[in-house]
Amino acid sequence: MPAKKEQKPKQTKDKMSDKELDKMIDKGIEKQKKEDKSKEQKKEKNSKGKEPDYNPWNVLSHPSMTEKSMNMVEMGNTLVFIVDKNSKKPIIKEAVEKGFNVKVLKVNLLKTMKGDKKAYVKLHPDHEAADIASRMGML
Question: Which pick of 62, 102, 116, 119 has the fewest CB atoms within 10 Å?
Fold first, then answer.
C-alpha cells in the first residue's frame, strides 16, 4: 500500500494570509492618519485670524416678557428666555455669560404647552438682572 501524502489545508477566499492582512491594516492606518491631518488643517484654517463675534441670540430666541418673568427679574435676580429647542443647560449658560458679560449661577429649563423651551437663568449676586433687562428693553 502506498503511503498517504499529507494534505495541506487549502486556503479559501475567506481566509487571508498574514501578509495580506498586514497590508490591509497598514492601509487603514495610513488612511486614518491622512483624515486626521486634513481635520487638523481645517481647524488651523478656521482658527487663523480673529475669532468671530459671539452671538448669544443663536441660542436665545427672545426674552419672556410675562408678568411672572418681570417679577422674577425684579425679586429673584433671574432672567427668563425662550430658547432653541435643542439647546442644553451648559450652552444656554455660556450664551448668557458671553453675551451679557455676567456670571450665571444656574439654569432651569421648562418645556411649555406651546412646545417652546423656556430657560430660567439665575444670575450671580454681583450682577443685577434688572440692569440687563433694561438694556434689552424689557423694563
Answer: 62
- Check if the beta carbon of residue 85 is closer than 8 Å to that of residue 112: no
Please write the tens of the pLDDT for every residue from 7-40.
655 555 456 677 776 777 766 666 676 677 666 6
- Residue written as grid cell 422674577: 72
CATH number (domain holding residue 116): 3.30.70.330
- What residues make up the domain containing 117? 56-136
Based on the domain organization, do 45 and 64 belong to the same domain?
A: no
Can you give 62-116 as a three-state secondary structure string?
EECCCHHHHHHHHHHCEEEEEECCCCCHHHHHHHHHHHHCCCEEEEEEEECCCCC
Contact 56, 90 (CB under 8 A): no
Type of residue numbered 128? E
Total domains in the fold of the chain: 2
